[in-house]
Design a protein that fits this description.
The complex is a heterodimer of chains A (about 600) and B (about 300).
Chain A lengths: L6 E10 L4 H13 L3 E7 L6 E11 L12 E4 L2 H7 L8 E5 L13 E5 L1 H4 L7 H14 L4 H12 L4 H21 L15 E4 H12 L1 E6 L6 H14 L2 E4 L3 H13 L3 E6 L1 H17 L3 E7 L16 H5 L9 E3 L4 H18 L2 E7 H5 L1 E4 L15 E2 L34 E2 L9 E3 L17 H13 L21 E6 L3 H13 L4 E6 L1 E3 L3 H9 L4 E5 L5 H10 L5 E4 L8 H14 L3 E2 L8
Parallel strand pairs in A: 1-4, 4-5, 5-6, 8-9, 8-10, 10-11, 11-13, 12-13, 15-16, 18-19, 18-21, 21-22, 22-23
Antiparallel strand pairs in A: 1-3, 2-3, 2-14, 7-14, 12-20
Helix pairs in contact in A: 1-4, 1-5, 4-6, 5-6, 7-8, 7-12, 9-10, 15-18
Chain B lengths: L31 H14 L7 E5 L14 E4 L5 H11 L4 E7 H7 L1 H10 L3 E7 L34 H8 L3 E6 L3 H13 L3 E7 L11 H4 L3 E3 L10 H9 L5 E8 L27 H8 L4
Parallel strand pairs in B: 1-2, 1-3, 3-4, 4-6, 5-6, 7-8
Antiparallel strand pairs in B: 5-8
Helix pairs in contact in B: 1-6, 3-4, 4-5
Classes of the chains: A alpha/beta (about 600), B alpha/beta (about 300).
């Protein structure tokens, strides 16, 4: 990542129902079309009307790893927003609010208040959304962007609502734009432009698109925050991509339905959050036992139980590790950002097809519900597809299809044939010549149950070992984690999954305060590159693990797998994601005081 | 019926072609033997080949059905056969799907899926071997056990009203609802053939006595009580009479086809299935046009 010369964060705050999304989308579109990079994080609550939402949109002329630390421009749609956030604004920041209905006290030193008489500028239009449009005009003016850029975006946004609505929004924005130029200074840094406009997606879009690229033809879900976006993307794109998308009565039904469709030959996927995943759990073992490949996505939110539905956490790792009864293998992968999530899904499908087993993608609210820019050229929708040892052609009777001594169709085919690799060629259901039964009961090579009448310990052992053999050497099929930053750094920060971006930025900030830090991000949980990780960490001067949970789930897992014990920990479990300065402070505290676990206090109250 | 499935008559197929690799381990006298035989006869009569059929079951005595049957088979989780089967049917709408299981599996732990598959009208046949008891767990009440029934979990008698799967299915939107009796195999075969040929979700609740754990509802109980709807000229389009007859329980208990209606199936309404064969058999990589269509709205 190159350093940004322009780095600006805009926050829009208000209550649910005040229409925060629209100005957010309009501004985001203006920025990414200029080729600026964007990382947006929406702090919200499980409420349809009311409460408090704070949408932070960070833009820069270089790739952005996280939503950062600061707010440069706070757009207050109500009094509550100003009251909450004005005190935490830093020097140089500005707060925009409607002087007609918001009162303010003293601003912190260096913070500029930008009161806008929205009523006067809109001829007292009773439509409350006009305030939002006015504020977009204000923002455009403060950033020194030409009004024509905004008017074109407004025209496009409101086109489907008719010319009258377009005109009203443009004139309102213009009045506010002019008023701002007459009364306030623009920000000192001009908003740059790049040649190529960027695309915009959310992490859930990326996960869904990864599924589509992998060739998912059946997707089922039960709506659950923060995973619902995957369902929405799939439903919107189903027809043009030939994907069957079903909303199902519960996650138990979802998981079993995708297993059925997978057995019939389709690549299938489903996404949920921890609670829904709990209901899917039994089916994950069923997929393992029947040896049917399916990809399950868990978008983590703060738990336990219903928890905090709109807040993030990395608290489900052990749930994934232990999902379903019995002793069996499953892939678990925690992507590091949206693009990584997109690329990971097809890779995981290839692995699941190869090993004929379930795979789990562990995302979280931060990745899934974040909105990000992405260069369209980086989105490869036609990745390599490898379905492993899959039989898709029929074998008619005159071609060895009836090899059974009893003359029964498919008799010569052993679905669970004992092979050296443990992988038995998998015939999809319905092919002539491969009739067989799959079973969640333990079975022999033929699929015949050994559990009910004669539980044969020798056969049982062979089948357990066969399934286990499929994973021998599989760790070599996925990329090991790589150390980022100087090898001889003072501190090594070890994180997993979605903390990649914030740790990345924290390392840069640490360098600014004279502490060299490197970063080992772990993505593959199972298989885990235990040896490589320990080798890297063995050379580190001081290892600090960063996790978005309270108990150090990855720290405990890594210790269990490798015996490695970190020197210290930075943990956060208040529902809000880390900001880079939290990690910087944690490292400084640990270097100074030798405390073992640092827990930052989140400053922004949302 | 205006819409029926066509199956080529294949002289060489007999019920023996559907005989499984192992013999059932059901108790001697179990009603499930009759159901197994009836399905084998029905399929061979319809000229279907083993690879054109999949039997999907949950867990329980009757759910061991796929293992005793030569066709594609799935022995899934307790209560989940209908969910798995919906996925199978969506990914391969050309295969004949038969779900089998018991009253506990289908109406108890799997009750949610039973409700929703009815309203979705998924084109498959669901055979519930209803013995009004949990057999494989050695005798506890099921959702269809009679009031007052004494079992290991209700030593002082069942206080919960049994549910009626037939009226439930009719109300929820199932388009073929019948009741069979293991003691009348010929009638049962007819019902099964009719159900398989029906386009839509077909339920046959089958009295399949548990000779080991249910001594209240055995053959001696049913034999003098069962009456065939067909003998009374019942009109299966008449859902109200169907419900009245289905709710009768006492000296006269009806078997036969209670209800049948024509309504688009889930698959019929899925545009993705209009052409191109089963989605499970299609090429899966995205085309250039599809990739372009995905990126465009992101810009």
């Amino acid at each position: 990542m190159k350093d940004a010369t322009f780095d600006f964060a805009l926050a829009i705050g208000g209550a649910a129902g005040q229409g925060i999304a629209t100005p957010g989308n309009i501004l985001a579109r203006m920025f990414v079309r200029r080729g600026l990079h964007m990382y947006a994080y929406n702090a919200y609550q499980s409420i349809i009307r009311g409460g408090h939402i704070l949408l932070t949109i960070r833009i820069a002329d270089a790739e952005l790893p996280c939503h950062g630390d600061k707010i440069d421009l706070l757009m207050c749609l109500n009094q509550d927003t100003l009251d909450r956030h004005l005190p935490v604004l830093g020097p140089g920041a500005r707060a925009v609010y409607n002087s007609g209905n918001v009162e303010t006290g003293d601003a912190p030193e260096g913070v500029t208040l930008v009161p806008i008489p929205v009523g006067e500028l809109t001829d007292n239009n009773p439509n409350k959304l006009m305030q939002n449009t006015a504020f977009i005009g204000v923002t455009t003016a403060l950033l020194g962007i030409d009004f024509e850029v905004l008017s074109a975006t407004l025209a496009e946004t409101f086109e489907r609502k008719g010319q009258e609505m377009v005109d009203l929004n443009v004139s309102t924005a213009k009045a506010a734009f002019d008023y701002t130029h007459e009364n306030f200074e623009t920000f000192p840094d001009l908003v740059p432009s790049a040649d190529e406009p960027l695309a915009v997606w959310s992490g859930n879009d990326a996960l869904a698109m990864g599924g589509a690229a992998a060739g998912v033809k059946f997707y089922a879900a039960y709506p659950m925050s923060p995973a619902t976006g995957v369902l929405h993307w799939m439903a919107n794109n189903a027809r043009k991509l030939g994907i069957i998308v079903r909303q199902v009565e519960d996650e138990i039904g979802v998981a079993n339905m995708v297993i059925g469709a997978a057995h019939a030959g389709a690549r299938t996927m489903c996404a949920t959050s921890g609670g829904g995943f709990a209901l899917m759990t039994e089916a994950i073992g069923a997929a393992a036992m029947m040896e049917i490949p399916v990809v399950f996505i868990n978008v983590m939110r703060a738990g336990p139980s219903t928890g905090v539905p709109t807040k993030t956490e990395q608290g489900d790792l052990w749930q994934m590790l232990g999902a379903s009864q019995g002793d069996f293998q499953r892939f678990i992968v925690a992507p590091m950002n949206a693009l990584d999530a997109f690329n990971t899904v097809p890779e995981l499908f290839n692995l699941c097809d190869a090993a004929q087993c379930p795979g789990i993608v562990l995302s979280d609210l931060l990745i899934s519900e974040g909105t990000f820019s992405v260069p369209a050229g980086k989105i490869n929708l036609q990745p390599e597809i490898d379905r492993g040892e899959l039989i898709t052609e029929p074998r008619p009777a005159d071609d060895g299809g009836l090899a059974d001594p009893g003359g029964r169709e498919g008799g010569g085919y052993k679905r669970y044939e004992l092979t050296e690799s443990g992988i038995s060629p998998r015939a999809i259901l319905g092919l002539e010549g491969y009739v067989h039964v799959v079973s969640t009961d333990e079975h022999d090579e033929d699929g015949v149950l050994i559990s009910d009448e004669f539980t044969n310990p020798h056969k049982r052992r062979l089948m357990v070992e066969k399934r286990s053999r499929k994973f021998e050497g599989i760790v070599g099929r996925v990329a090991p984690p790589e150390l980022e930053g100087p090898a001889d750094a003072d501190v090594t920060l070890l994180g997993w999954g979605s903390t990649w971006g914030v740790i990345h930025e924290a390392c840069e900030q640490l360098a600014d305060v004279g502490i060299t830090a490197n970063h080992l991000p772990v993505k593959w949980i199972v298989p885990l590159h235990g040896e490589q990780i320990v080798e890297i960490l063995g050379k580190s001067k001081r290892v600090i693990m960063v996790e978005n949970n309270q108990s150090g789930q990855f720290a405990r897992y890594l210790r269990g797998e490798t015996g490695f014990k970190a020197d210290g920990h930075i943990r956060k479990y208040d529902g809000e994601p880390f900001m880079p300065h939290h990690i910087v402070a944690g490292v400084q505290e640990q270097l100074a005081d030798n405390i073992e676990i640092y827990v930052p206090q989140h400053e922004i109250m949302v | 019926m205006s819409e029926t499935k066509t199956a080529e008559p294949a002289a060489e197929i007999t019920s023996k072609d559907f005989k499984g690799k192992v013999d059932p381990d059901w108790c001697p006298g179990c009603g499930d033997f009759s159901v197994l035989k009836s399905v084998q006869v029905a399929l061979s009569d319809l000229g279907l080949k083993p690879h054109e059929v999949v039997t999907i079951a949950g867990i329980g005595c009757s759910s061991n059905f796929p293992g005793y049957f030569n066709a594609y088979g799935m022995h899934t989780l307790h209560g989940r056969s209908l969910a798995v089967a919906t996925g199978v049917k969506m990914a391969n709408h050309e295969i004949t799907v038969i779900c089998t299981g018991g009253d506990g599996d289908g109406y108890g732990i799997g009750g949610n899926h039973f409700t929703h598959i009815s309203r979705r009208n998924v084109d498959l046949t669901y055979l519930v071997m209803n013995n009004q008891i949990y057999g494989l767990t050695t005798g506890q009440i099921s959702p269809t056990s009679d009031l007052g029934m004494k079992t290991k979990s209700t030593p002082f008698g069942n206080i919960e009203k049994p549910l009626n799967p037939l009226t439930q299915a009719i109300m929820n939107g199932a388009t073929f609802v019948a009741r069979g009796y293991a003691g009348n195999q010929k009638h049962l075969q007819m019902l099964i053939k009719d159900a398989i040929q029906h386009r839509g979700f077909s339920l046959i609740d089958i009295f399949s006595p548990c000779v080991t754990f249910n001594h209240d509802n055995d053959y001696a109980f049913f034999r003098p009580r069962v009456r065939k709807l067909e003998d009374e000229g019942h009109n299966p389009e008449d859902w109200k009479t169907a419900c009245e007859k289905a709710l009768m329980w006492g000296d006269e208990i009806y078997i036969g086809k209670f209800f049948q209606a024509q309504r688009p199936t889930l698959g019929d309404q899925e545009p993705v299935l209009e052409e191109g064969g089963p989605i499970g058999h299609r090429p899966i990589a995205l085309t250039d046009e599809q990739a372009e269509a995905i990126i465009k709205p992101m810009m």
